Amino acid sequence: MRTDGPVVAYGGGWLDRAAALRGDPEWLAERLGDPMSVVLPLWRDRCLVDSGRVPVRPAAVGAGELLGGADETVFLGLDAGRAVSAADLSGLEEGEACARAGAAEAVDVRALVGGLGPAEAAVQAYAKGLLHWHRGQRFCGSCGAATAAGTGGHTRSCTGAGCGRLLFPRIEPAVIMLVEAPGEPERCLLARHRGAAEDAWSTLAGFVEIGESLEDAVRREVAEEAGVAVGEVTYQGSQAWPFPAGLMVGFRATAVSTRVRVDGDEVVEARWFTRAELRARVAAGRPLGRVDSIDRHLLASWLDGRG
Fold first, then answer.
1. Which end of the chain is more exposed for a tag (fewer CB within 10 A), N or C?
2. pLDDT for 20-39, tens place per residue?
3. Could you give all domains of the chain from N- to C-terminal order, each with its CATH number?
4. Cβ–Cβ < 8 Å for 221, 189
């Protein structure tokens, strides 16, 4: 099993999340008031950016008005000792949120990936996922009472009498896999999903279900969507997937046979591609996976004969 891997989009975040300190309200207040600290403003899961599409990062000393309009402020971590937080301005209209942050517009983090390094995109994705979780957990699912944020925004607790349920941010794991054919010639399986363009082919992927391992999920998804039985499954790498708070785990899998039978629901067509066919697609300007997705690494490493 591989234990190394590339740094893909939304990976390689450098922040020290300071888990041992973020439960101290006084320490957090001091960090938020430090003029060297920065705050990342977001609006309804979108990053607030300047006219050059660079994410806005107000210094703490100048973030008073911004924080005053925030529905929630969370501590993300320390960057070389400097605190980095995120503020949710979703309760404001977009124009007012931009004005408070000194931003030009609100854009999805995916629109910024090409101009950000993987680690910078990871911090923006981290902020988006955590603030999204807070908006969806304002009330207890057990008793219906209001919840309150704690530990710098990394927990919420129920305020209901006799309940006190403690809530933690949830991550939604998914698997994505490049399936290889058994024997010669060497081929990989790509699928065309419902709603995709006529010549848009991609790897298979799906969410992990309760009661199964990641490898089990790979085998189930490939069988359900393409009708292909899979034997060996090998880990290749992972990435945060901010839609809104997922974890995408990449695998390479070997099929037991080349027989394909698509489900006709999520996948409308699937076929085997040789390396020569994939190289021809690249030469013709066809994209080899999404720019911000680990499927690009899975396809490129297979094309280069790596892994």
1. N
2. 999 999 999 999 999 999 99
3. 1-136 (no CATH), 172-303 (3.90.79.10)
4. no
